[in-house]
Amino acid sequence: MSFELPKLNYAFDALEPNIDARTMEIHHDKHHAGYTSKLNAAIAGSDLEGKTIENILINLDKSNSAVRNNGGGFYNHSLFWEVMSPNGGGAPSGELADAINAAFGSFEAFKDAFSKAAATQFGSGWAWLCVQEGGKVDVCATPNQDNPLMPGIGCGGTPILGLDVWEHAYYLNYQNRRPDYISAFFNVINWDEVSSRYAQGK
Ligand code: MN3
Asked: 32 alpha carbon to ligand 1 midpoint, in Å?
């Protein structure tokens, strides 16, 4: 069994003007495809073959840079596409909203904390909203393709929202204006999907 590049649930241009079609096409068809094929090559013939990606990352040997970088890249992008939607934006409701209010005081304060984590991640990486066992949520950032499922990385727990801040995710449209890209991301967040991941992850 090998990993397959997941299909997008929407067209490349569906997230415009927040994320442009050309960026989405290159990001999915070239970058994510590359992580997927390199992950398959890295685990071929090893005892990792046939395991779920979550299982591989939770039990990761961090010295295995091919699996760390490409397994992270495969997982992170698979999550990223699903937590965005052309019908996204707004704010969460229900128990996720309660958890965000409990941790940060308000949705606006969460938005500030998440945006700051994304803006201040030096170089390439990701910003995350994670849920711990019991339902508490936390924000963190990780370098490169690391993610909080990996042992000792980031805020731990299960990532339920992730934002790619590698330049390849925004440079065509935003150039060096990462904060504008972060702000635009909030217009396309699929809070129904994030809420569903919260319910599963807590
Ligand atoms: Mn990327």
From this structure: 7
CA of 105 to the centre of ligand 1 (A): 31
Q: How far is the CA of 139 from the centre of ligand 1 (A)?
A: 19
C-alpha span between 39 and 56 (Å, rounded): 11
Cα 30 from Cα 15, distance rounded (Å): 18
Q: What is the pLDDT of residue 1?
A: 60
Whole-prediction pTM value? 0.97
* pLDDT tens, residue by residue, 138-167: 999 999 999 999 999 988 899 999 999 999
Give the C-alpha separation, 104 to 32, whole Å: 32
CA of 98 to the centre of ligand 1 (A): 30
Region 78-94 average pLDDT: 97
* Nearest one of 33, 30, 20, 71 to 49, comparing CA atoms: 71
For range 122-145, the mean pLDDT: 97
Ligand 1 centroid to residue 164 C-alpha, Å: 6
The residue-averaged pLDDT of 109-131 equals 98
Distance separating alpha carbons of residues 28 and 8, to the nearest angstrom: 8
Distance 187 CA to ligand 1 centre (A): 19
Q: Which residue has the tokens 């091919």?
A: 66
Handedness of CA 197, 194, 192, 174 (dihedral sign): negative
Q: How far is the CA of 82 from the centre of ligand 1 (A)?
A: 14
